[in-house]
Write a structure and sequence with these properties.
single chain; alpha/beta; globular; disordered C terminus; AMP-binding protein
Length: 568
């Protein structure tokens, strides 16, 4: 049993000191916050557990929760655990078309064979369609807070099924045990240097591993205060999240959050109070150093320091965190010669540096080949870089990242497989990277690459070249590579009207890829770049939609040939 995460669910004595003054502050839609103390949340969770038990849910069963961030979602999450069951947080509907959402979510429910699915009254019809599509004859259970309380049951070994943020109707559920969860939470708290009285703030979705484990369960495990928003509330008002750091010390967020806040708020960042902010774990997508430096310069008058950033590497298959920076010194950066990258070969480092201080503006030379260090392995974690045969490579050599340790999960649910492989108690992650001076530098998914001129070319690197050559915002473009019997091709998707930039983009791609790779440019309005819940481009899905002619208002500007291969 997880004492850290479940012991507070028993009714705390009324003499428990300031425990009754701590809890979760939920953002409302009027610009304010609704406070729910831990005793209130624990009582509600016990009532949900009683309702689930009355429906026949037994310890070890899987219960799905299809709810947006809010008190019912938190009550359900901890209520499932109080019932002794395994929880699976299902993404609530966001911006995807309903048919696509039903297909993807049904793929999750089909795997879980859930004993119950908890939802809200307004989502019940959609949840019923998902259950039907999953082949279940069960009806969704609408969350209520009126059941009979029960004392928390002893849970089984499996704490949660964490589904990865892919795009297919066959998503993969990672089996996270209580031992995995406790080990990773201890790693995160240690890296953050969490102190008594510290608080956190987050807008990340709770169905995502960084939002659930890094931002919700980390403070809950020490019964700390947390300010919690929904993702759409952050999009509407990023300053609301930032204002939390007048009192909150910790958060985790993808690089997009800082880039977006800087673009939306600009010089108004200087008017905020960020003086309490000590740590921001940054990960979940390739890290653009320039975007983080831009935010740091604008936010410096508000008390923000670049040392707040903790660039990190992790993945759901390792519960969450693998490496996290813990030093107060600015993170190191390197610029590599991308033209000489070879898998299992040495990496040519052209330049070494560190995050720019807020007072210094980095040279305007783009981001091509510039990478940021993501720290070393956390306590008890083993991280190495290996070749195709799984043999460790020396520092400074490019290979696949392999992870071992107590946070490594027991595999995918229902026999699923993926580019991340579970081998001999460890994980071959499918991510490419190298170590330099004790720091892990990550290039990206090995599947997000193709061979050109006899070397590996990474889609993130091509996107960086396009951004540098055209000035397009990083999140407004995505490159998809395809290798097949018809040859090799890349497609650049850009949320920008046709213009002279198309020629600039084509020229820089041609220079990187050579004459044998076909190049297609697709332009469209905002929303053309389809992304996963963690902000990563759904490259294969976008290519398939283009090939099927399902991209609305998109314009194909150049197509050298059509390939019959698969997108990488």
């Amino acid at each position: 049993m997880s004492d850290a995460l479940l012991s507070w669910l028993t009714d705390p004595p009324r003499t428990a000191g300031d425990l009754h003054g701590r809890g979760i502050h939920l953002a409302d839609d009027r610009g304010g916050w609704e406070f729910h103390g831990y005793p209130e949340l624990a009582a509600s969770a016990r009532r949900v557990a009683g309702s689930l038990a009355a429906q026949g849910v037994r310890p070890g069963d899987v219960v799905c929760v299809l709810l947006p961030t809010g008190f019912p979602c938190l009550s359900s999450l901890f209520g499932v655990w109080a019932a002794g069951a395994t929880v699976c947080l299902v993404p609530p509907p966001a911006f995807a078309a309903e048919a696509e959402y039903v297909e993807h979510t049904a793929g999750i429910l089909r795997q879980t064979e859930a004993a119950a699915t908890i939802t809200a009254e307004g989502l019940a019809p959609l949840a019923a369609r998902v259950l039907a599509a999953a082949g279940s004859d069960r009806e969704p259970w609408i969350w209520r807070d009126d059941g009979d309380e029960i004392q928390p049951r002893e849970p089984g070994a499996l704490a949660l099924l964490q589904f990865t943020s892919g795009s297919s109707s066959r998503p993969r559920g990672v089996r996270v045990t209580w031992a995995n969860l406790e080990a990773n939470l201890a790693l995160i708290r240690s890296a953050l240097g969490w102190r008594a009285g510290d608080a956190g703030a987050s807008w990340l979705p709770l169905h995502h591993d960084m939002g659930l484990i890094g931002c919700l369960l980390t403070p809950v495990s020490v019964r700390a205060d947390l300010w919690l928003m929904r993702p759409e509330q952050f999009i509407r008002d990023p300053a609301r999240w930032l204002r939390c750091f007048a009192v909150a010390a910790h958060t985790a967020a993808p690089p997009f959050a800082f880039e977006y806040a800087a673009r939306r708020l600009g010089d108004r960042l200087a008017d905020l109070d960020l003086s309490a902010w000590r740590n921001a774990i940054v990960g979940a997508e390739p890290i653009n150093p320039r975007a983080l430096e831009h935010f740091a310069r604008l936010a410096a008058p508000a008390g923000f320091s670049p040392s707040v950033y903790l660039p990190s590497y992790g993945l759901a298959e390792a519960t969450l965190a693998v490496t996290v920076r813990t030093s107060d010194a600015p993170a190191p950066t390197v610029r590599v010669d991308t033209g000489t990258l070879r898998f299992a070969g040495p990496v040519t480092i052209e330049e070494e540096g560190e995050f720019a201080s807020p007072a210094r503006t980095p040279p305007d030379d783009g981001e091509e080949g510039r990478l940021i260090g993501c720290g070393g392995p956390g306590d008890g974690v083993g991280a190495t870089v290996v070749d195709d045969e799984g043999r460790p490579l020396p520092d400074g050599h490019l290979g696949e990242i392999e992870v071992t340790g107590p946070s490594v999960t027991s595999g995918y649910h229902a026999g699923r497989t993926g580019s991340t492989r579970f081998v001999d108690g460890g994980i071959r992650t499918g991510d490419a990277g190298f170590f330099h001076r004790g720091e892990l530098f990550v290039l990206g998914r090995m599947g997000d690459s193709l061979k050109a001129r006899g070397r590996s070319v990474y889609m993130e690197d091509l996107e960086a070249k396009v951004v540098s050559a055209t000035g397009i915002a990083r999140e407004k473009c995505a490159v998809v590579g395809v290798e097949g019997t018809g040859g090799t091709s890349v497609t650049l998707f850009a949320e920008k009207a046709e213009g002279a930039w198309v020629e600039d983009a084509t020229l820089v791609l041609r220079a990187a890829l050579g004459d044998d790779v076909a190049i297609t440019v697709v332009t469209g309005r905002s929303g053309l770049i389809d992304k996963t819940s963690s902000g990563k481009p759904r490259r294969r899905h976008m290519w398939e939609e283009l090939r099927a002619g399902r991209l609305k208002d998109a314009r194909v500007l150049e197509t050298a040939h059509v390939t019959t291969g698969r997108p990488v």
